[in-house]
Amino acid sequence: IGAVAAPGIGIDAIWKGLIAGPSGPGPHVIDNWDPEPIIPKRDSRRLDRFTQFALVAADEAFRQAGDFVDDPNDVTVSMATGIGGLESLESLVNESQKDEPRVSPFIVPMMMANAAAAAISIKYGFGGQANTPVVACAAGSQSILDGMRQIQWGYADVAIVGGTEAAARDSAREGFSAARALSKSGVARPFDVERDGFVMGEGGEVIVLEGLERAEARGATILAEVLGGASTADAHHITAPHPEGDGAERAMLLALDDADLDPGQVAYINAHGTGTDLNDRTEGLVIQRVFGDQQPAVSSIKGTTGHALGASGSIEAVMVVESMIRKELLPNIGLDSQDPEIPLTDIVRDLRPWTPGPSLSNSFGFGGHNTVLAFAPPA
Questions:
Q1: How distant is the alpha carbon of residue 65 from its chain centre?
Q2: Are the beta carbons of 324 and 177 closer than 8 angstroms?
Q3: Residues paired with 368 in a beta bridge
Q4: How confident is the model at residue 43, as a pLDDT?
Q5: pLDDT tens-digit series, residues 184-197
Q6: Per-residue model confidence (pLDDT) at position 100
Q7: Are 320 and 359 in contact (CB under 8 A)?
Q8: CA 73, CA 58: separation in Å to the nearest integer?
Q9: Alpha-carbon gap, residue 77 to 80, rounded angstroms
Q10: Cα dist. 201→27, 257, 328, 370 in Å?
């Protein structure tokens, strides 16, 4: 696993940042971003910020994974995003308004949503399928599910999966604010009675997936197992979740079934937990219905990461894995007083020692996209 996000660069730094909490109101972005020496300056000028995030995260993940390539044509890449190269798109729009615009010939490939997947494929010579799930805030999780299926179905030996986003720009903030989704206070408070919306974040995460037998045969250090997952659609509204959480509930139940888990076996849920009124209340009700009186521990990390849109599911999946490694659960930063209409019985408020067990990671996005993943510590 490899990651860059607002709390830090690299897994260790992000973990420490998630414990400490945000330094102030959002948006939560990576300050003083510099992709060197991983990406030389001559190359970074031709890459949007979101693609740079993906390449730096990939470098960390690949160094950790060791020698995982036998045939590069059997390595697939699935790198998700919600928006893509928004920084480059804004630059193009601004430049095109000038009397004598000077537009880079690289501007279109810089802003393409598939640029990050292509960059990883090109840099490392991976010749398997390279694709880009674009399902809003469920995209990062969907990439992991897609990569798992590629391996299960025999289309790839290894899947490079994850998400990347650098959309904390004025244009996106104004749009989300107009949709009444963005926090006016600049503070994300998942599940809190005073929550008033999400705070934008950014980041990129990469996970190296491979079949268990293959990983064992090459002596890989196995960090966790993807037990299963599922995705559904609300078929309801372009921004609002289904009022009863129908699609989210089906996704959780299907993920449990795919992972061959009973609700009582789940030890932790990484909640989507955006800090919006509708999402948090609906997600809480869904968890109550699925788990009844067997609710596991629950927390959202968006109080510190912000909402990284298409990268949110992947940073959360990475941190579920890291929680298993460190045997600790991350706190739900921003929660002071739980909303009484949210029937969650065990929200993690402080860093908590934990015996790792099967865990779910929820991702729900605009458009009614729902993706739920199930993880477990290595056997």
A1: 20
A2: no
A3: none
A4: 95
A5: 999 999 999 999 99
A6: 87
A7: yes
A8: 18
A9: 10
A10: 6, 32, 24, 20
Express each pLDDT in 222-233 by its tens digit. 999 999 999 999
In terms of CATH, what superfamily is 2-376? Answer: Thiolase/Chalcone synthase (3.40.47.10)
Q: In angstroms, rounded to a whole number, what is the distance separating the alpha carbons of residues 311 and 365?
A: 12
pLDDT at 111 over 90: yes
| Residue 264 near residue 278 (C-beta atoms within 8 A) | no
In sequence order, which residues have a C-beta less than 8 Å from that of residue 147 and are 6 or more positions away? Answer: 76, 78, 156, 159, 160, 161, 207, 209
Asked if 147 and 192 count as a contact pair (C-beta separation under 8 A), the reply is no
Cβ partners under 8 Å of residue 45, min gap 6: none
Q: ∠ at Cα 241 (376, 164), nearest 5°?
A: 55
Averaged pLDDT for residues 70-86: 98
The answer for residues whose C-beta is within 8 angstroms of residue 348's C-beta and 6 or more apart is: 297, 298, 299, 329, 330, 331, 332
Q: What are the helix (H) ranges across 194-276?
A: 212-217, 246-258
Q: Cis peptide before 37, with omega less than 30 degrees from 0? A: yes
Domain boundaries, the chain: 2-376
Confidence of residue 96 (pLDDT cuts 50, 70, 90): confident
Beta bridge partners of 352: 329
pLDDT on residue 26: 85
- State the Cα angle at 52 between 63 and 23, rounded to 5°: 95
| Catalytic residue list | 137, 272, 307
